[in-house]
Amino acid sequence: MLTGDLVRPHLDIRGGELQIDTLDGNSVHWRTTAAALITLLQQQVGQTQESWQRALERYEGNRTDYNVIRGLAKVLSDAATFATLPTPVAPAELRARLFAHGPVFTNATLLQPQTREVVLKEAAAAYGLSNQAAEGMLYADRPAAYQLTDAGPLWTPETLIARYNLELARAALYWADQMEVQIYSGFKDFWKYIKFFKLMFWATPLPDGGYRVVLDGPISPFVKATTRYGRQLAAFLPALFLCDRWQMHATVRPPQAEQTVRYT
Amino acid sequence: MTTSLAFQGGTLVLKGVPQDQAVHPAFQWIKARWRCEAYHYPALTDWLHAQAIRDSVPRWQTLQLKLQDQRQPHDYQLAALDAWENANQLGSIVLPTGAGKTFVAIHAIQRVKRSTVIIAPTIDLLHQWYARLTNAFGIEIGVYYGSEKIVQPITVTTYHSAGDLIADYGNQFKLMIYDEVHHLPAPSWGETALMSPAPCRLGLTATYPEPHEQTAGRWSLDHLIGPIVYEKRLDELVGEQLADYRTERIRVNLTASERQQYDVDYAIYATFFRSRQLPRTHGAGWWRELMRLSAFDEEARCALLARQRVQRLLAGAEGKFATLDQLLHEHVHERVLIFTESNEIVYRISNRYLIPALTHETKAAERKEILESFQRGRYQAIVTSKVLNEGIDVPEAKVAIVLGGSAGAREYIQRLGRVLRKVGNQQAVLYEIIVRKTVDEGRAQRRRPKADQGDHSRSKLYVDR
């Protein structure tokens, strides 16, 4: 899911209605950007997460549309796999052994006769590793050192932009305090997910056979500014997509709005 | 039909009371029931009794607690506890870092003897509360946060997870203790206090927020927790309770090439600021305005990037590392804590000197191992970014080195508190390394007035090297 800071600039509030500024899938600019990011990620296979972040930063340069770039990159990396590589010794164990000698310095001193090199060499030898291997393993378990093992689905600029737009739509619900939906099928799954996400609901039958369901959390009628249920509602949204025919509108209160606004 | 009041997801619901019946003014008719927020509960009990409505809210237990720790509270701790009890067990106690707030809380639980929830700002502090409470009472203590959710009569949680815990189990705790209660006015965090029916509440902090910082929308701290019932400042306790310390400020120079780069980037940033005058047009919100502008205004974007480069350069200035190297040589057999804001620098230092790093990335087990090994003396030094900011016990440290940084005054006091805990009579020393003639200096100046509260006139010793 996109983080709040990636979504906020794309919320457009006019006359009490919330619109999402989605990306135009036909725009050459966005297609080129999406294509460049997809290539960038593919080039990073086998590299570390840190390297991917650096590459993104370089690509961003001083472009002012960095927010979209980061959003697209978030969609890409959410679907990709960054994993730790197996090491002969757990990095934490190696650290515990080395750190018992610290602080060590490049040159021996009267009070600290062991140099960094000597300490590292001894530990490496104890595990049957080369100095270099031990050095590389020291923090191999940090997320920054995770390696990109799988770049995820085969994206095209079109599918990436479409997925990004969907994520934006869903993220608008982070700030929702109430949501009203009309559903006409798939009731069983629908109720199941309502229970699962612990939502308070109020269902009334519609004349043409469906239900109008008003959803909120128990405390949201009192605390209008609450965002506590927004996350749950956003997570709940995919359950709606299981229904064939539905309509949704929500009252949301994005951080930049004074009042709650409607989102359809 | 019998009528009753029940707890539901942070609210109280009257069951079996129709809409046309007059009820207590706290209630509102919402979704076919009379409902109100749970914090109204103490005000409702008399009314419930008069109306003969069954009260099925409280699910808290009476606890048979026996303190395993025979240490006696200090006079000021007893005074604080008495003041809190006289205020109907509602209100905040303000004590400086290192003055034993956790100990006060343990005695408060002992006095109330009912199920208690403790809310701490970070997972580190949660772990620390867990350890202290386990040792104090010798019973199973619950923890409730992201990766572990075990609810016990005494449970520790974080501000982040408190919402979920209170929504489901709010009526199982009679006493709520907010550690670092100055965090509570944050909008969604304050909701946790609205959602709990607990009639006994205790707030703990070293830095009680100013009146204008206390209100977030409808509520204020006094409203949610009660007023300050007891306050003691750092200078009233130094010497009596806290170890004395001195601050040495060390100014270093940029290298010629660093200076060149700094001047270029700083000029970009400063020129932008002078021409736009954001602080004048947008007041305290200038930072947000800069962020907003940077999404379409090329100059703003460049200014923002220049500012980032300045910060990176200062965090990694060679002079700082040369001085750090010297200081580590000087204190090679003493327990040293090194602070820097930059995660990247933390790992660089950890790697270079082979000392353990504590950051938000460090897993709970390793963090525990590092802190314990540090206390036992297996590790001589720790380098850390943010996680030790508030109230982690590392009483063994007598030397702290702060590598410059933009930490605010509040953070700085909390950091000082880290090396303040008294062990023997040895004086603690805090080195602050800042880069001469850069924004580092300005930040350190702004911090000074408040940070000095502790050592005013007694041991004010700023050494320029």
Architecture overview:
The complex is a heterodimer of chains A (264) and B (465). The mean pLDDT of chain A is 83. Chain A is of the alpha+beta class and 264 residues long. In chain A, helix 2 packs across helix 8. Helix content of chain A is 42%, strand content 17%. Chain B folds into four domains: 52 residues, MutS, DNA mismatch repair protein, domain I, CATH 3.40.1170; 158 residues, Rossmann fold (3-Layer(aba) Sandwich); 149 residues, Rossmann fold, CATH 3.40.50; 59 residues, no CATH class. Chain B is built from 18 helices and 19 strands. In chain B, strands 9-8-10-7-11-12-6-13 form an eight-stranded mixed sheet. In chain B, strands 14-19-18-15-17-16 form a six-stranded parallel sheet, sandwiched between helices. The C terminus of chain B is likely disordered. Classes of the chains: A alpha+beta (264), B alpha/beta (465). Chains A and B meet through helix 5 and helix 6 of A and strand 4, helix 6, helix 13, helix 14 and helix 15 of B.
Any chance you could write out the topology, listing elements then pairs?
The complex is a heterodimer of chains A (264) and B (465).
Chain A lengths: L3 H4 L3 E4 L2 E4 L7 H16 L5 H12 L5 H14 L1 E3 L7 H9 L16 H11 L4 H7 L9 E4 L6 H15 L4 E8 L3 H10 L3 E6 L5 E6 L11 H14 L4 E7 L8 E3 L1
Parallel strand pairs in A: 2-9
Antiparallel strand pairs in A: 1-2, 3-4, 5-7, 5-8, 6-7, 8-9
Helix pairs in contact in A: 2-4, 2-8, 4-8, 6-7
Chain B lengths: L3 E5 L2 E5 L12 E3 L2 E5 L3 H11 L2 E2 L19 H12 L3 E5 L6 H12 L3 E5 L2 H15 L4 E4 L2 E3 L3 E5 H11 L5 E4 L8 H8 L5 E6 L5 H4 L6 H4 L3 E4 L2 H4 L7 E8 L3 H21 L1 H5 L3 H8 L4 H18 L2 H13 L5 E4 L3 H11 L3 E2 L5 H13 L4 E4 L14 E5 L5 H12 L7 E8 L3 H13 L14
Parallel strand pairs in B: 1-5, 6-12, 6-13, 7-10, 7-11, 8-10, 11-12, 14-19, 15-17, 15-18, 16-17, 18-19
Antiparallel strand pairs in B: 1-2, 2-4, 3-4, 8-9
Helix pairs in contact in B: 2-3, 5-6, 10-13, 17-18
